[in-house]
Amino acid sequence: MQPTLSDQEFSQFRHLIYDIAGISLSEAKKPLVSGRLAKRLKHHGVERYADYFRLISERDNAAELQTAVDLLTTNETYFFREPKHFDFLRERIAPECAGKGTFRVWCGASSSGEEPYTIAMTLAEALGGKSWEVFASDLSTRVLATARRGQYPMSRAESIPRELLRKYCLKGVGRHDGTFLIDRALRERVRFEQINLVKPLPRLGEFDVIFLRNVMIYFDAPTKREVVARMLPMLKPGGHFIVSHSESLNGITEALRLVSPSIYRKP
């Protein structure tokens, strides 16, 4: 039987994930927190969430703290989610920037890799052999490990256009039956790194496009402003900043201009 997460215990985890990742969990997320962490209580043989919280708060338990963060920050993703963004990237942005040095895209919330590999397929089609690269980051080490492997259940292929699936993905055989693998040449164009967007960012160079989709919905307004302000210096003048259709930068920054729904440009 799963332990009961009290309001006080839930509050502890809410403050923890806000302090670490800037994610603001509503009261409605209490069952999610309880469900995702229950297996870790069982793993460590503790009966109460308060005991598990004390365990991950200890200085020598950094690995378990990362596991808890991974479980509480992992969200749904899939290939070619909100496809109009990739149409815009292929038809408008990439041709405009072709031949102006290496075309660089940063996927700021890569999750398990579906979005950065979608970007890579799009750029491979739009730019071919020209110089381009995709940099992808996430807070969760667990999803980054999946992303680097580039291997997914065949059910995840349903949203990939057939011609791109044939061109950039390999069907698993034998013990890998029922899965597909992103082609090595495409995987080598994508670099994954753990980055916490609510902390000072490492030096990453400048990008032509920054994707920050389906992550700001978990931030409160001050955190949104801080995250965008940190990222904007890395966007080239004339570069594009793309959020999800359910998000907006209205009231978050005045440094960008809306050019299409959920697509902004730096003057």
What is shown here, in short?
Helix content is 41%, strand content 18%. The protein is of the alpha/beta class and 267 residues long.
Tell me what the structure shows:
The protein has 267 residues and is of the alpha/beta class. It has two domains: 7-73, Chemotaxis receptor methyltransferase CheR, N-terminal domain (Chemotaxis Receptor Methyltransferase Cher, domain 1, Orthogonal Bundle); 84-265, Rossmann fold. The protein is 41% helix and 18% strand. The protein is built from ten helices and ten strands. It has helices at residues 7-21, 30-44, 49-57, 62-73, 84-97, 114-127, 141-149, 162-168, 184-187, 221-231; strands at residues 103-107, 132-138, 151-153, 169-171, 179-182, 190-194, 207-211, 235-242, 257-260, 263-265. It has a seven-stranded mixed sheet, covered by helices on one side. A three-stranded antiparallel sheet has the order 3-5-4. Helix 5 crosses helix 6. The N and C termini lie far apart (57 Å).
Helix content: 40-55%
Radius of gyration equals: 20 Å
- State the separation between the terminal residues, measured CA to CA: 57 Å
CATH superfamily of the largest domain: Vaccinia Virus protein VP39
**CATH overall fold name of the largest domain:** Rossmann fold
* CATH-level-2 architecture of the largest domain: 3-Layer(aba) Sandwich
Briefly note the structural class of the backbone.
alpha/beta
CATH class of the largest domain: Alpha Beta
Widest sheet, order of strands: 6-2-1-7-8-10-9
Q: Approximately what portion of the residues adopt beta-strand conformation?
A: 15-25%
